[in-house]
Specification:
Chemotaxis Receptor Methyltransferase Cher, domain 1, Rossmann fold, 7-stranded mixed beta sheet, 3-stranded antiparallel beta sheet, Bact_Chemotaxis_MeTrfase, protein-glutamate O-methyltransferase activity, S-adenosyl-L-methionine, methyltransferase
């Protein structure tokens, strides 16, 4: 049975005021809302940085954040953002993409021969590469088509990992053997427990750092947007703003995929629900 960490159990003093200062910055700059129950999580994720760079002093850390130290602000943002993902997570979304959306876009976009998918909140890249695999499999005999995935995240550390395309082989446990052989290369020697996404798939993905609350430098339009397990960390007002912006940057008839515990109900009415957290803009 787990017990809550108390102030006497902590190595450093982490007061309610420290948590409030951190929470204010995180909400303003990322849109993520940290409830009181996240106080121990925040302490746990930051304590190693406080020990190494601030001699155990949360006051100095909070001062650096509020005084605009970009390096310290990055430490905070990277520590707070949650990065749980997997290849083909919620497989039914990728089945729908391959079996319904891509055939439809193949007919619809036959003049431009262009398809753009956005993985918003891509974490360590598994979702983005899963999307690229779907594109690769559908268009591998259609080389004149320009099909690409934009993958963005707020966390600079996970983006660096994603760009490498290298993962522990255990991350592929849920895939069939033939899928592993088709889409990944296994390391040799002391790297035999690592796999790398094949180049033909990796080159279809562009990874960029992006704060969803800030200005979006890309123009779109996107045919498909995956924004899964991201909005649960935002309040309803922020969610409403984000979904409105998604609608504005998507092509008419475009598809939006969100996480299994998320909903647009009472948040946005621009999209038509298709079931299984899949939505579509009117054409």
């Amino acid at each position: 049975m787990m017990t809550e960490l108390t102030s006497s159990d902590r190595e450093f003093i982490f007061s309610d005021e420290h948590f409030a200062r951190i929470r204010r910055f995180v909400t303003v700059h990322t849109g993520i809302v940290l409830p009181d129950i996240k106080k121990n999580m925040v302490y746990g994720r930051l304590s190693k940085h406080i020990r190494k760079q601030f001699n155990g002093n949360f006051d100095d850390f909070c001062d650096a954040v509020e005084n605009g130290d970009s390096e310290v602000q990055d430490i905070l943002v990277n520590a707070i953002t949650t990065n749980l993902t997997a290849f083909f997570r919620e497989r039914h979304h990728f089945d729908f993409l391959s079996n319904t959306v891509l055939p439809e876009l193949y007919k619809k976009n036959h003049l431009t021969k262009r398809i753009r998918i956005w993985s918003a909140g891509c974490s360590t890249g598994e979702e983005a590469y899963s999307l690229a695999i779907c594109l690769y499999e559908f268009f591998k005999d259609k080389p004149d088509w320009d099909v690409r995935v934009l993958a963005t995240d707020l966390d600079a550390n996970v983006l660096q990992a994603a760009k490498s395309g290298v993962y522990d082989i255990e991350r592929l446990n849920q895939l069939e053997l033939k899928e592993k052989k088709m889409w990944f290369k296994r390391g040799t020697g002391d790297r035999q427990n690592l796999i790398k996404v094949k180049t033909d798939i990796q080159t279809k993905v562009a990874f960029k750092r992006l704060n969803l609350l800030h200005q979006w430098p890309m123009n779109g339009p996107f045919d498909v947007v995956f924004c899964r397990n991201v909005i649960i960390y935002f309040d309803k007002e922020t969610q409403a703003v984000l979904f409105k912006r998604f609608a504005e940057i998507m092509r008419p008839g475009g598809y939006l995929f969100i996480g299994h515990s998320e909903t647009l109900f009472n948040v946005n009415d621009q999209f038509t629900p298709l079931g299984k957290t899949i939505y579509q803009l009117p054409s």
